[in-house]
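User: I'm curious whether this sequence folds into something compact or stays loose and floppy. Could you predict its structure so I can see for myself?
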Amino acid sequence: MAKMESNLQGVNILLGVSGGVAAYKAVDLAGKLSAVGAKVGTIMTANACQFIGPKSFEAVTRSAVFTSLWAGPEEFKGDHIGLLDWADIVVVAPATANIIGKIANGICDDLLSTTICVCWGKPILIAPAMNENMWKNPAVQRNVKTMKEMGFKLIGPEKGRLACGTEGIGRMSEPQEILKAIEKLASKIRHSKK
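Assistant: Here's the prediction. I'll summarize afterward.
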């Protein structure tokens, strides 16, 4: 199958997957990124691994998946700083209330939160996904505001049917929409380097 034309050809995307039901959509996103020629590295939190296995991401990206600060593929060698040097763009999808709180407050207690703390100067796109009541929680909204003030970009969440069975805001944006947002970020990076 021929690759589609994209400004993501050869761009290194670090995909962070936190522990929400929408983690299955992140596999679709990783596949779409790979299909347009991006190089995708994936970091999964322990909770994300409860929803979907690392092998799913390895299959669609043909790259190692990192799940811990303490153990990982040989080329990682325990150095999360190496991921900073490698990544052009960082994407967190789904971004739970938990990871959003960690990012906004500089909490570094797992590989994903530690890597994002190190990568703060890179373009970072956050795709929130959670229950509507969680999304509307004043603490979550304060954390979202803090991330925006830090220069992070957000996409979503969307309104629709949620995992809990209710209708409301909290659905992660669809992978195709996240892909378009990543392409927009990549375009800005390319123009700033000219």
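Summary: The two ends are 32 Å apart (CA to CA). The domain at 35-156 is CATH 3.40.50.1950 (Rossmann fold).
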